[in-house]
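ok so for the tutorial part 2 we go from a plain amino acid sequence to predicted structure tokens. step 1 is just haveing the sequence, like this:
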Amino acid sequence: MSLKNVLGQKQAVEFLLNEIRTNNVKHSYIFYGVKGVGKKFTAIEFAKSLLCDKPTNGYSCDICSHCEKISNNSHPDVIVVDTDYQERLLGKPDKQKNIKIDTIRYIKEQAFLAPYFGKYKIFIIDQAETLQKEAANSLLKLLEEPPKNCVFILITASLGVLPKTVVSRCELIKFLPFTKEVLKSLLKKEVDEVVFSSMEDTIYAEKIAELEKNLPNFNIYEIQGLAEELKKDKNLAKYFICRVINRILPDGLKEEIYDFILDSESYLKEFRYNIDVGLLIETILFRMRTLLCNKNLL
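step 2 — the prediction. this is what the tokens look like for a chain of 298 residues:
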């Protein structure tokens, strides 16, 4: 992976590459836009480009020790602050899922330490709109007088919720909603490679393997019997459907199911209700069965 792999955000990527190529990297950025359009992924790939041993025209090599450590979330100079990180840091769960002042205090301590290995220390604050008021004020002081060689990247789907004083200290980079063509490309990538959206989600590989033990023939009829189980976990359902599409549908039919899934999602987004995930799974599987029957493949 590198910034080359960021889909649908050409303007944002070109801006970041230009920052690197002109040696004009700012101390703080805000990546803002609707959820699920690659803001966090882009922030991590940007961090790779900044610390890479062998970058090419702003793009990371993805094979040096810096790139590998960042990919594995184990680089000491790159800290991704989210609710999971905060729970590990503070040693207790947080039902409210807010970023607390104690977390920002720790970040401030780390920011004033010299980088361990890289040129920069990079702090990626996910869901920055959840910063508590005192945490935001503490962060503001850090942004007003940033330590040398530190880069802060705030990620938010709600720019208007952030204090204006914080926003004014950052370079704003807007992330656009995906076009249908980009969504189809991403869906195809997920199906072909069963790409997990985070390191934590790789646990679903084990869950999928367990489900497949109950599918001796791995056919559409057996799979439909799992709809009740799948609807308990939306992410498991998503990854398992990708696995099913990859194993059952010929390439010629995959395009049709991509269009169907994307059209279904667009239709569902028109409503403000909680959608029955089980019903959606059954609908997708029924559509797949229909496609196979029409081609005499079932």
